[in-house]
Amino acid sequence: MAKVPRTSPILSVTVAAELAGMHAQTVRQYDRMGLVVAKRTKGGGRRYSLNDVDKLVEIQRLSQDEGVSLAGIAKIFDLEAKVERAERAAVRAERARARAEEEVAELRETVAYLHDQLTRYDRRLSRVFAADAAGDVLMSDRREHLRETLRAHMPGTSRDVVVWRPRTLVPQTLFED
Predict the structure, then answer these.
(1) What's the whole-number mean pLDDT along residues 169-176?
(2) In which band, very low, low, confident or very high, does the pLDDT at 54 lie, cut at 50, 70 and 90?
(3) What pLDDT, on a 0 to 100 scale, did the predictor assign at position 177?
(4) Three-state SS string across the chain, please?
(5) Side-chain half-sphere of 177: how many Cα atoms within 13 Å?
(6) What is the pLDDT of residues 100-124, one digit of tens each?
(7) Are 143 and 110 in contact (CB under 8 A)?
């Protein structure tokens, strides 16, 4: 069997009044005052939910047991509604904050990855190549290191060394604004 939500307006004025332990005319009066606002059928009849009945019971308790005026009860309900809206807004804000933190973490990972890629690219651009008279080519990250390596591994050969850097792999115009 399907459950009916507590917010479904399915109760007539008479049934809602009976469940709340009050006269139907009192329920109509509270409706006119805006304390418990009924939903309307196509024909204009009032329909109340179980939550509305709970509210009617609370109105009766506050007015009879606590001595609170109907204006005071209206103010209490208004403040309770504001608190509920604020709590829902706080929940939404917390969710948004959590999503923002996740996005920041993802962006930090992306920045770290891109930094690593740029560092690798920078190393490739700073490589130095050399060729001796026989045409043997060596590569190094630093010119000094390359000269030392050439002299150490090619004794007795010509001391002539050609050193060059490769041209930029990515056109610099790509980065201009």
Answers:
(1) 51
(2) very high
(3) 47
(4) CCCCCCCCCCECHHHHHHHHCCCHHHHHHHHHHCCCCCEECCCCCEEECHHHHHHHHHHHHHHHHCCCCHHHHHHHHHHHHHHHHHHHHHHHHHHHHHHHHHHHHHHHHHHHHHHHHHHHHHHHHCCEEEECCCCCEEEECCHHHHHHHHHHHCCCCCCCCEEECCCCCCCHHHHCC
(5) 0
(6) 999 999 999 999 999 888 888 877 7
(7) no
